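> call design_seq(struct)
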């Protein structure tokens, strides 16, 4: 069998594994092989939710939503089930894969909700196939009434991968940051966790070779990885074997707590959307993983255009070293988004923001990591009749998006609205609410035309213990990657000879 035949078979097998479909054309078809690649819905998705909290006061809501996707078929199934809770020595609780699912969505277009309470709630491992797979989204929202890490803790359950960057983590004495590692597969994963501070890599053998058993989750306290506390660190998680989902639960003695999701992949231009208009403190943390330094222009995309913050016009990020800068109340009463662009020959970076609302003893905090644009479609679940704020940013040319509010978990009729975001600005709006809403609902954002649009959703609820400052959390809106590109083969695979 010649090299061309082997390559075609390998390509077809890879495509079939992802989508269950491979398009082919017979030899001699003029121009057919030059057709644009087809976009087809994915046929299987995996999502993992970290253990929600160590507090006995924690109350957690899970909301699952799969948008309706053309070409995805007429049937499918999905479920989220408890993973085995493990210690870092590899021992487990004995609970796990056989437990009853927490959520079992039935059909696209209708969100479903589930609940958990207390400190014993485990991580969840889930998969969806058929018409529930494309764009499947699960939001985990936890309310912690008091204690370290109090507040509203929100995170989009994430797909497994092998490489993650978390700028904005901390090993400071007032912080208790845990990296949660969850393995969805039938074989163990081996993971390395490395910290980078202001002076470079922090030496530690404790974070090397962490084993995560099949269908289980391991939390690792970051302060145990170093003897010298540091306020701002960048965390790098890599899987030597297998794959995991990873998220950082950051709890502060004074500022409450929230989840720090992974930053988008290193890039030259970075967008961090959705700083609340009443943010009293904003801290930017950036890191460049390459061998070269990064020089970045810092701008705020405000409701009227890009603004350069006084005294913070630029940021120099040394290779392998974490850079942090406090921007204060950079929004000055108007919602905005931070846009970092390279100046000259600048290396790609990862970045995140910590945003604080309130003052003195009455403060709450959340995180906004760098994110991808909404692209073809992005979704966020667990929106309420009151308390959701949608931020849309067009860092370059103006862009138009369609926003759809789904039916509610207990009833309601979907509503759609179109927004055009001017170039270089941020639009902050109360999103549409389904007619006759009962329960919570999902928001789906789809690019219609124009330049790239980035987005985030802030959810806030009243806090009885901190009057005037609501508990809040922010989730970004990256493209859901619900479709995959399937190129046309230039040869009919059925005529290949052995």
């Amino acid at each position: 069998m010649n090299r061309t035949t082997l390559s075609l078979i390998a390509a077809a097998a890879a495509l079939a594994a992802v989508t269950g479909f491979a398009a082919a054309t017979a030899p001699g078809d003029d121009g057919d092989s030059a057709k644009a690649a087809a976009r087809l819905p994915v046929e299987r998705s995996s999502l993992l939710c970290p253990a929600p909290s160590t507090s006995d006061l924690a109350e957690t809501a899970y909301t699952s939503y799969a948008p309706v996707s053309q070409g995805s078929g007429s049937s499918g199934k999905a479920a989220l089930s408890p993973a085995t809770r493990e210690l870092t020595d590899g021992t487990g609780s004995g609970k796990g894969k056989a437990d009853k699912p927490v959520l079992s969505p039935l059909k696209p277009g209708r969100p479903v909700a589930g609940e958990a309470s207390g400190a014993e709630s485990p991580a969840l491992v889930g998969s969806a196939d058929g018409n529930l797979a494309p764009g499947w989204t699960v939001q985990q929202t936890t309310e912690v009434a008091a204690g370290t890490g109090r507040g509203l803790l929100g995170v989009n359950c994430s797909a497994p991968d092998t490489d993650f960057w978390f700028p904005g983590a901390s090993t400071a004495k007032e912080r208790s940051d845990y990296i949660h590692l969850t393995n969805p597969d039938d074989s163990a994963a081996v993971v390395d966790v490395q910290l980078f501070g202001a002076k470079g890599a922090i030496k530690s053998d404790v974070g090397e070779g962490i084993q995560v058993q099949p269908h289980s989750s391991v939390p690792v306290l970051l302060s145990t990885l170093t003897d010298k506390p540091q306020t701002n660190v960048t965390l790098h998680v890599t899987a030597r074997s297998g794959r995991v989902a990873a998220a950082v639960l950051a709890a502060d003695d004074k500022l409450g707590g929230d989840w720090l999701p992974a930053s988008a992949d290193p890039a030259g231009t970075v967008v961090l959307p959705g700083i609340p208009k009443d943010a009293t403190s904003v801290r930017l943390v950036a890191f460049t993983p390459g061998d070269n330094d990064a020089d970045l222009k810092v701008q705020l995309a405000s409701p009227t255009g890009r603004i350069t913050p006084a005294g913070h016009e630029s940021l120099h990020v040394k290779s392998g070293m974490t850079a942090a800068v406090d921007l204060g109340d950079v929004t000055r009463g108007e919602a905005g988004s931070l846009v970092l662009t390279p100046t000259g020959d600048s290396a790609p970076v990862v970045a995140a923001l910590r945003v604080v609302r309130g003052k003195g003893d009455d403060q709450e905090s959340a995180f906004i990591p760098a994110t991808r644009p909404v692209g073809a479609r992005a979704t966020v679940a667990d929106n309420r009749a009151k308390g959701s704020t949608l931020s849309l940013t067009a860092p370059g040319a103006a862009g138009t998006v369609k926003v759809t509010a789904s039916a509610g978990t207990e009833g309601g009729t979907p509503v759609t609205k179109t927004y055009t975001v001017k170039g270089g600005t941020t639009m902050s709006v109360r999103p549409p609410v389904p007619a006759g809403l009962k329960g919570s609902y999902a928001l789906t954002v789809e690019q219609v035309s124009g330049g790239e649009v980035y987005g985030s959703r802030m959810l806030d609820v009243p806090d009885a213990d901190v009057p005037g400052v609501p508990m809040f959390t922010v989730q970004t809106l990256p493209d859901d990657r619900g479709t995959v590109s399937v190129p046309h083969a230039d040869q009919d695979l059925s005529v290949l000879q052995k």
